[in-house]
Specification:
The complex is a heterodimer of chains A (about 500) and B (about 70). Chain A contains 21 helices and two strands. In chain A, α4 runs antiparallel to α5 (about 85-110), α7 (about 140-160) packs antiparallel against α8 and α15 crosses α21. In chain A, a hairpin with a 4-residue loop joins β1 and β2 (about 80-85). Chain A has about 500 residues and is an all-alpha fold. Chain B is mainly α. The longest helix of chain B is centred in the middle third of the chain and has 24 residues, at about 15-40. Chain B has one domain. Chain B has three helices and no strands. The chains are: A mainly alpha (about 500), B mainly alpha (about 70). At the A-B interface, α8, α10 and α13 of A face α2 and α3 of B.
Chain lengths: ~500, ~70
């Protein structure tokens, strides 16, 4: 604020902007590109909206290149509002990759749904910008703005197929519950501001260092923040929006919201709690541990009875967040932050791959969303069935896929935390995480059984487009590579976790 | 849709704003004034019950929206 008030001329303001804007280069590029997509859609020189998707991809590519050039540079910008550190960098990579993959799988899908519009791509880009600000925000105001930018775009995208009652209903539920959870989160933030007198995370950390953790206002702020963020990452008991929203939203958007907001939510959770609320460590650890247990158990148990693949994957993604929260509970001393970051990286690829196959199943008049729609897929399209098998194996955590290594790091973090603290809660977490992984095998197996051991109920082939093939190849390569050659990714995730140690 | 139905929907939906705060407050009060003093476990049950209250409030909101198809 001192900087802003200290300006005496326009030239000074411009110099300030020029010095600081480098830190948010990828976000600026994406913003320009998102507005550009809307303008290109309006002018529409090629009269073929398919190109809008490719145009968006180009923007994501430029933003990615800019992000690549920022690798290794650290610092804060805009009066300590945003930070450029390996943690933010790592998560921004996940967001850009997720956005690019979602655009790739959307090209054909939107043609089938007859809904190719520029707004769709622009909203994905805007949501991605929100997520990127969430990863780099170190001020409560910045975090809140990023969160809303992401959430509002997602509400609109969920109701994108507005003439379908299911889509509109999903958007309505998502919006209402999201709005309330934002209120809860904001209340928590305002309490935190009231206690510390600042919105900066570093300032909050300094101000709270001498405060007793038993102070009711601090406890209430902790609960409200955990509840608000719990909603964003769809953790039990704040998960009820997820299955309905996942089912009603366009499948491509389901893929997007199964990765983007969850990864962003966990990034914020780690930033706020690990970085600035060390005082209430024991309180939030117990809270998050309770939520993690509920999330793993309920996510996996509820998935067993689902017949709709999108609902099944919704519960599956809820359970995955449970495992990530186990990493958060284990804490930075036991490499919990690293394990959670690594898990999210692997999760993004394997989950987007699975959803890409579900999008591929949408053909002609077949929605491809029921488990029965996968019947006999191996006999019709063996390649697609094998790909789905690999992605499901990764989600279940079977070696040598990314999911196995990710789960291994989570388990080793929590077991290490148990030996370090001899807190029986950690042992309980490890046991429940292990047991629920077995339940997960069952419902993933149901899809595998439908694909390989059941006769086909229809003869409609799946059609691979070049864009879809590209998306599948990228997700497949990373799902396997992260599993069999984790070295470089471990280094990236370790570097990402370092600022929070 | 008759006018009466519209009023009913409006009155039903207007309850939304109270659901989450009242549930959380109820949970918090129960934990803070009843269970924690009784068992001497402050702040665990306060935390737990506020959390459950929040979840219950969201669930009621979800049900209310689901009914308005």
């Amino acid at each position: 604020m001192e900087n802003l008030m200290g300006f005496t001329s326009t030239a000074e303001v411009l110099r300030y902007l020029r010095q600081n804007s480098a830190a948010i280069g990828p976000e600026i590029i994406l913003t320009i590109w998102a507005v550009g997509v809307l303008i290109v859609d309006l002018v529409n020189p090629l009269n073929k909206r398919f190109w809008l998707g490719l145009f968006s991809l180009l923007g994501i590519g430029f933003a990615g290149f800019n992000l690549y050039r920022l690798h290794g540079i650290e610092g804060t910008a805009f009066s300590q509002m945003v930070v450029l550190d390996p943690f933010a960098w790592f998560f921004k990579v996940i967001f850009l990759v997720a956005a690019a993959l979602v655009v790739l799988i959307s090209l054909k899908y939107l043609d089938i749904e007859e809904a190719q519009h520029g707004e769709y791509y622009a909203l994905i880009l805007f949501a991605t910008i929100g997520m990127m600000f969430l990863a780099s925000g170190i001020d409560l105001i910045m975090i809140f703005v990023g969160l809303e930018l992401m959430a509002i775009c997602e509400y609109v995208l969920t109701g994108y197929l507005k003439f379908r009652p299911r889509s509109a209903e999903a958007a309505m539920k998502f919006f209402l519950l999201g709005a309330f959870s934002t209120g809860i989160l904001l209340y928590g933030m305002s309490l935190l501001y009231g206690l510390s007198g600042t919105t900066s995370l570093q300032g909050i950390s300094d101000a709270l260092s001498g405060v007793s953790s038993n102070q009711p206002a601090l406890l209430l702020a902790t609960i409200l923040l955990v509840a608000g963020l719990g909603f964003k990452v769809a953790a039990v008991p704040f998960h009820m929006w997820a299955p309905d929203t996942f089912e009603g939203a366009p499948t491509t958007i389901t893929a997007f919201i199964s990765v983007g907001p969850k990864v962003a939510g966990i990034a914020v959770l780690l930033r706020i709690f690990v970085q600035s609320m060390e005082t209430v460590r024991s309180d939030y650890t117990v809270l998050v541990a309770l939520i993690a247990i509920l999330t793993m158990v309920w996510g996996n148990v509820a998935a067993v009875t689902q017949n709709n693949v999108k609902r099944l994957l919704a519960y599956s993604s809820i359970s995955h967040i449970g495992y990530v929260l186990v990493g958060v509970v284990a804490g930075p001393e036991s490499n919990g932050v690293f394990a959670a970051s690594y898990y999210l990286f692997a999760y993004a690829f394997m989950n987007l791959g699975t959803f890409a196959i579900v999008v591929l199943m949408r053909r002609q008049e077949i929605q491809g969303e029921e488990v029965n729609d996968f019947n006999g897929l191996f006999f019709k399209s063996p390649g697609v069935a094998l790909l789905m098998l690999i992605f499901l194996a990764a989600l279940a955590g079977i070696p040598p896929t990314a999911g196995f290594v990710a789960k291994f790091f989570i388990f080793s973090a929590v077991i290490d935390a148990y030996f370090r603290t001899t807190d029986s809660l950690m042992a309980v977490l490890a046991v429940i995480a292990g047991l629920t992984t077995i339940i997960a095998l069952f419902y993933y197996w149901r899809i595998v059984k439908a694909m390989f051991l059941t006769e086909a109920t229809d003869q409609v082939q799946t059609r691979l487009t070049p864009a879809m093939t590209a998306a599948l190849v990228v997700t497949l390569v990373f799902t396997i590579l992260v599993g069999i050659y984790p070295g470089p990714f471990v280094e990236l995730a370790r570097a990402a976790a370092a600022p929070l140690q | 849709m008759t006018k009466r139905n519209v009023y009913k929907i409006i009155s039903d939906l207007s309850a939304i704003i109270f659901l989450i705060p009242t549930n959380m407050a109820a949970g918090g009060l129960l934990g803070y004034y009843v269970i924690d003093p009784w068992l001497g476990t402050y702040p665990w049950f306060t935390l737990l019950f506020v959390l459950i209250g929040g979840g219950a409030g969201l669930y009621q909101t979800y049900q209310l929206v689901s009914r308005q198809r």
